[in-house]
């Protein structure tokens, strides 16, 4: 057990609660609202967009909306203790996972990445400041955030103690964690590595005036460049719907404006530029003459696909590497959207058209369909899971 000493507690300690409590209880909801206030008071918060988004998500009004949406006539209670294993690719993922568990009536042990970030430092600081208030004393043993490396003893210990384990990460991470036995009455919820796609109607882009185009471009930037396309919900493949002549006009209009915004806002590190070019070369080789390259300096690489490939989910980009495909018949893309695809963002399409692509055509993948600009908006419906139900249990009384 000496290996347990290598664990660094950022919030809470090894004295944690394991019993459940009621979902959306008053103390938890007030805690999130107070945390939001603390976060908004941090220096330079307006310059750290994902923290600003987190503070907005935790605000009192949004929590009230969550209560209205998720409370039901069923009698529900939390499972007890949740062990969260969270990824390094999205800096704020761990705290959303924590808050999902907390809101649904659970105690939480959250393992975060060994990679330190300004976001994790500020979040943990604000959590500790909020927990110091006497009115939130009951939550102190229900929020534990820790960091450790190569400590199988601790992973095994918490895995066997917990009532539920939530694993965020790549397929290899999930396989590794699953080697640690759970209590027979416990279960896993896994959020595996996935990809996403964006569908744009060309005629709708052509009709946009410059003001509205700038708004759309900013939203696309937030979905992609803001997180270096690391999020599962960030689109990598852009499907243009329209005739060839319209597609050509719309693509130039769209990418010219993306380029202007990226040059102004995006900082492409030298090391990232090298890795991006290496990735580009690998993908060109992978596609084997099935693509043409369009470049906007080092800021945007676009591989235009001549035809779709069966392993479409393997076409992943980073730091502004995208794939394009043109069609006037969206039905043909459905069979290529396998279980590895999570989110479909769109612009210029009716919801009924989006529904047809995914639901009516019985597509294997796609769990979320949202307008461009909402790819990163996380909520209690994620990866096809209704977390409000998955993180609670029903108590039946007759």
Task: Write a concise keyword list for the protein shown above.
alpha/beta, 398 residues, six-stranded mixed β-sheet, seven-stranded mixed β-sheet
Q: Gap between N and C termini, in Å?
A: 46 Å
Mean pLDDT: 93
What structural category characterises the helix and strand content?
Answer: alpha/beta
Helix content: 25-40%
By DSSP, the count of extended strands is 17
Per DSSP, the total helix count is 13
Uncertain runs? none
Rg value? 22 Å
How would you sum up the major sheet?
7 strands, mixed
| Dominant shape | globular
* SSE order, one letter for each helix or strand: EHHHEEHEHEHEHEEHHEHHEEEEHEEEHE
Question: Explain this structure to me?
Answer:
Strand 3 (81-85), helix 4 and strand 4 (107-111) form a beta-alpha-beta unit. The model has no long low-confidence stretch (mean pLDDT 93). With 398 residues, the protein is α/β, with parallel strands linked by helices. Helix 1 (26-40) runs antiparallel to helix 2 (49-58). A 7-stranded mixed beta sheet has the order 10-11-12-9-8-13-14, with helices on both faces. It has a 6-stranded mixed beta sheet with strand order 1-5-4-3-6-7, with helices on both faces. It is built from 13 helices and 17 strands. The relative contact order is 0.13. It has helices at residues 26-40, 49-58, 60-70, 93-103, 118-131, 152-161, 171-177, 202-207, 210-223, 244-265, 270-287, 351-360, 387-390; strands spanning 8-11, 76-78, 81-85, 107-111, 143-147, 164-168, 187-191, 195-201, 235-241, 291-296, 300-305, 321-327, 341-347, 368-371, 381-382, 385-386, 392-394. The longest helix is centred in the middle third of the chain and has 22 residues, at 244-265. Helix content is 38%, strand content 21%.
